[in-house]
Amino acid sequence: MKSGTVALVGKPNVGKSTLINTIIGEKIAIVSDKPQTTRNRIGGILTSDDGQIVFYDTPGIHKPLHRLGQYILKVATSSLVGSDLLLVIVDPTDGLRESDRLVSNHVNQSHIPVFLAINKIDEYEDKRLIEEFRQKAEQLFENISRTFFISAIKAMGVDELISAIFDFLPEGELLFPEDVITDRSSRFMASEVVREKILENTRQEIPHSIGVVVQEFKDDGTILKIRADIIVERSSQKPIILGKAGSMIKKIGTDARKDLEYIFDQKIFLDLFVKVREKWRDKDSMIQEFTNLKDELH
Ligand SMILES: Nc1nc2c(ncn2[C@@H]2O[C@H](COP(=O)(O)OP(=O)(O)OP(=O)(O)O)[C@@H](O)[C@H]2O)c(=O)[nH]1
Ligand SMILES: [Mg+2]
What we know:
Number of domains: 2
Order of helices and strands: EHEEHEHEHEHHEEHHEH
Distance between the termini: 34 Å
CATH topology of the largest domain: Rossmann fold
Bound molecules: guanosine-5'-triphosphate, magnesium ion
């Protein structure tokens, strides 16, 4: 039996979280079309007859602009340490940028073997463009043992990728029980889904300045009651989240509740409140409180 750990690494928005969801076959990480969606290291566990792969979704590596960004970068870079393999994701629709170079610096310094995955190939009919991109991308990373062409959204090339990872990994015992698919709690998932719906429904600086804290998570046998605070960093952001006559927060709540009812397969009552905490993204104690980062960073 094979077993090992694989960190998904790349700049923001390349499709790391989409890929981990496709691989596991369930939603374990939130996804959005805005960069810097993922803030935590999220384990997704795949168990099959071949063995077990523990995938770690990580935040996109980027140049931090505030204290929260520094924390998130640290989560990403420290996730590489100790992995058996790095699955580096690149995005031809965005091209190669300074942030890819930043990724390659961290990856090359780690000296961990790399599988390179060129994602979003569903966007290309002309394979020559992808081939040109591949050559440039391969030059960035020193330790590539194989390159794959995939579409995380359409699950193209994903089975081949998984079987190559099993081939690569060493013999070993299961690291998690075979029925476990994530190392994250339902409470974490609830706060993330609320944040995903804010990312989907808002624009500009709002998506990035949000924190979500689950204050109550109680199952009374018939309904799961979740009460959560949405944290904004300026008082001017509060009316945007509330919307006209509360229409925005109602939409966020309904979208989140529907998703969570599907994920948890249970009836849910979701109650959301908006709170202002000035400049929370620059304050250590608030960052830890509002982002589920407390356990990750010591
Ligand atoms: N066309 C296409 N779009 C994709 C594919 N995979 C992901 N996307 C889109 O790319 C965007 C970013 O996806 P995410 O999975 O959130 O990206 P990420 O790398 O986890 O981003 P961060 O968490 O910000 O680092 C979303 O709009 C996805 O729908 C793909 O295979 N094809
Ligand atoms: Mg992500």
